[in-house]
Amino acid sequence: MKKIIVLTALTCVISLTTFAQKWKRVHLDSIVSVELPAGYTKTDTINQTIYSAISQFGNIIIVKTPDVPAKMPDIEKKKHLQNYYDNYLNKIKTSTKGMISQERDTMLGDLHVKDFTLEVDSGRGKQYRNFRILHENCATYTFEFLYEDVHKDLGKEDNEHFFNSIKFAFNPTVQSQFTAQSNVQKPETNNTVWIAAVAILIVIIILIIIWLSRRNKRNKAT
User: Fold this and answer.
1) Rounded to whole angstroms, how far apart are CA atoms 79 and 50?
2) What digits encode the pLDDT tens for the residues 38-66?
3) pLDDT: is 53 or 215 the higher one?
4) 57 shares a domain with 30
5) Which candidate, 139, 88, 92, 85, places its Cα nearest to that of 107?
6) pTM greater than 0.90 (yes/no)
7) How far apart are the C-alpha atoms of 110 and 6, rounded to whole Å?
């Protein structure tokens, strides 16, 4: 009888705390938005914007990394996008000692994304990190929900709430995920150098023409 009372009380506490937590829609930019628990933080670093929040049974991290034209691979087709996601996953594999599971390529509306789970054992229990990778609008978005093994069942609701809340301001097509090599911007310094060189060359030619013209006039005068 006591066990039943304890379990009932625990269930009520969990339900009340979950119900009490408020989620707020956050616009990562003019296109992508997501819901985060109240009290989230936003940090701007060099070439990255990081959002972090704490839910009842897990931690949330979102990283937006704008493309660097000089380093970004050419993505013109779906297979190029797939290779980009695979390389991203391989970087995570080599930088951690965890195990990748539940890897799958799926769709978010008409956009291609990659989902996977990273399982890490710190020695004090397993930790799970659910990822969703999205390349869209010249930026890579990394959505992550992290939870401990002890909260594996309790964290499912927060996990689903988070990933299902990813929305777009309109219905983008897969073409918005591509980046053609022809669109890669050249360094402005190179353009400036070429323009300056051409301008100097034109000035030199004009000066030579003027000098030759004056020389011919002098020769005729003598």
Assistant:
1) 28
2) 999 999 998 899 999 999 999 999 999 99
3) 53
4) yes
5) 85
6) no
7) 47
4 assigned to some structural domain: no
Containing structural domain, residue 103:
22-182
Q: Which two tokens stand for residue 12?
A: 């009520």
SS3 breakdown of the chain: % helix, strand, coil, rounded to 5? 40, 35, 25
Torsional class of 174: left (φ above 0), alpha (ψ -120 to 50), beta (otherwise): alpha
Residue 144 lies in a domain: yes
Tell whether 2 is covered by a domain: no
Per-residue buried b or exposed e for 82-91, using 16+ beta carbons within 10 Å of the residue's own CB? eebbeebbee
Q: Which helix (H) or strand (E) holds 14?
A: helix 2-20
Structure tokens at 121: 């054992």
Quick one: 46 and 154 in the same domain? yes
